[in-house]
Design a protein that fits this description.
37% helix; glutamate-1-semialdehyde 2,1-aminomutase activity; binds pyridoxal-5'-phosphate; Aspartate Aminotransferase, domain 2; porphyrin biosynthesis; pyridoxal phosphate; EC 5.4.3.8
């Protein structure tokens, strides 16, 4: 049977590599044809063939309020009618940055257009501020497709890294150290050996790009607190990547669940996804004395034609304004219901599983043991996930088409949407059981 999605995918593949504009959309990790979506409303996606799905991707994070939220649509329509880009400063840019500063530990912020741009710029600024070149990151953490961050671990823990993809020269990653996540000894060893050369350590505030792997406790404090301390002791900057977690895990992000109580602040933070309300808007910011090194105030160059775009800032501001305590409470209710339903279904079907969360962001690892790092995440059963994914899709639930992604909910997920997911889970878990291999398979790329 050929569907509208099949026909569009064929057209797309003729003119676009893999038929998609971001790899994970292609369904390579689960097989089959991606659904071409024609419209979306609240928690529902409608594809070009008229099928509807409960959306558990939420644009990979941004759609905190659900699709076509009335306040966001109104703000966008109003902004569009006033012109779409001026290349001059605007009031909404100030208002959006003020809203972010009010909710997070950053003192100053620069707007950009993508999370990739935010992390790339934060690293340039960290290097410019410290006068050092080495960057530390963790295996399994994704920070966008920045050359120096597309690195895979070298042969030893404190050796420099290899490019993670063709097209990145060795010279771009030879100043990047890749360490295992949640491993304080590896961090101590890297700083002991290279501390005076390290410009910054960048980490996902709570990793979500290898599935959700919450920061562990280190001697009675969070892994993030330990990282912040270690960086400070060595004169390096601590860069917390909240592109995925910001304004989702809590009103501020992951920091609202650890740093706010523990009393530490990152030197630099990156944001994206939710803060754009579905438009390309992202940001990096932090300590005012560090941000003062950015052009035009300081010597570190960074710029963008569409940075702070008036339509994107209107959507972002409307989204943050509407993201009230009630919204976060609803996200928690929805996530709790789905986690409980998934656990029950997998248990009943005899499928080994671990559900890990930070706030309402969670993922289901089809594996025996809790996942602390990338090596653990890679033990998830991808064949079982593929079968599970397709059974859910057939029952009208659109999960992320990869076993290594978080499930994203929105405040618009009402009881009907939640019920549809809960109803689909038992048969899909049985499909996973039939396909289970227990094999160890690598992530197919984000
Ligand atoms: C999505 C993501 C990015 C990259 O953002 P883009 O807007 O896709 O460039 C960076 N860091 C994290 C943690 C992300 O989840």
């Amino acid at each position: 049977m050929t569907t509208g999605s099949d026909a569009l995918f064929a057209r797309a593949r003729a003119v676009t590599p893999g038929g998609v504009n971001s790899p994970v959309r292609a369904f390579n990790a689960v097989g089959g044809t991606p659904r071409f979506i024609a419209s979306a409303q609240g928690p529902w996606l409608t594809d070009v063939d008229g099928n509807t799905y409960v959306d558990l991707i939420c644009s990979w994070g941004p759609m905190l309020l659900g699709h076509a939220h009335p306040a966001v649509v109104a703000a966008v329509n109003e902004a569009v009618a006033r012109g779409t880009s001026y290349g001059t400063p605007t009031e909404n840019e100030v208002a959006l940055v003020e809203a972010i500063v009010a909710r997070t530990p950053v003192e100053q912020l620069r707007l950009v257009s993508s999370g990739t741009e935010a992390t790339m710029s934060a690293i340039r600024l960290a290097r410019g501020f410290t006068g050092r070149d080495v960057v530390v990151k963790f295996a399994g953490c994704y920070h966008g497709h920045v050359d120096s961050l597309l690195a895979s671990a070298g042969s030893g823990l404190t050796t420099f890294s290899l490019p993670g993809t063709p097209g990145v020269p060795a010279s771009s990653t030879e100043l990047t150290l890749v360490l295992p996540y949640n491993d304080p000894d590896a961090v101590r060893a890297a700083f002991a050996e290279h501390g005076d050369r390290i410009a910054c350590l960048i980490t996902e505030a709570a990793p979500g790009n290898m599935g959700v792997v919450p920061p562990a406790q280190v001697d009675g404090r969070s892994f993030n607190a330990f990282l912040a301390e270690t960086c400070r002791a060595h004169g390096a900057l601590f860069v917390s990547d909240e592109v995925m977690t910001g304004f989702r895990v809590s009103a501020s992000g992951q920091w609202g669940t650890d740093g706010a109580h523990e009393g530490w602040v990152p030197d630099l933070v990156t944001f994206g996804k939710v803060m754009g309300g579905g438009f390309p808007a992202a940001a990096f910011g932090g300590r005012a004395d560090v941000m003062a090194h950015l052009a035009p105030e300081g010597p570190v160059y960074q710029a963008g034609t569409l940075s702070g775009n008036p339509v994107a800032t209107a959507a972002g501001l409307a989204t943050l304004t509407a993201a009230t305590d009630e919204v976060y409470a609803r996200l928690d209710v929805v996530a709790d219901a789905l986690r409980a339903g998934a656990a029950e279904a997998f248990t009943a079907a005899g499928v080994p599983h671990v559900i890990q969360s930070t706030g309402s962001m969670f993922s289901v690892f089809l594996t025996e043991d809790p996942v602390h790092d990338f090596a653990g995440a890679q033990r998830t059963d991808t064949a079982a996930y593929g079968a599970f994914f397709h059974a859910m899709l057939d029952a009208g639930v659109h999960l992320p088409p990869s076993a290594f992604e978080a499930w994203f909910v929105s405040a618009s997920h009402d009881d009907r949407a939640v019920e549809q997911v809960l109803d689909a889970l038992p048969a899909a878990a049985r499909a996973a059981a039939r396909a289970a291999t227990g094999s160890t398979t690598r992530k197919a790329g984000a």
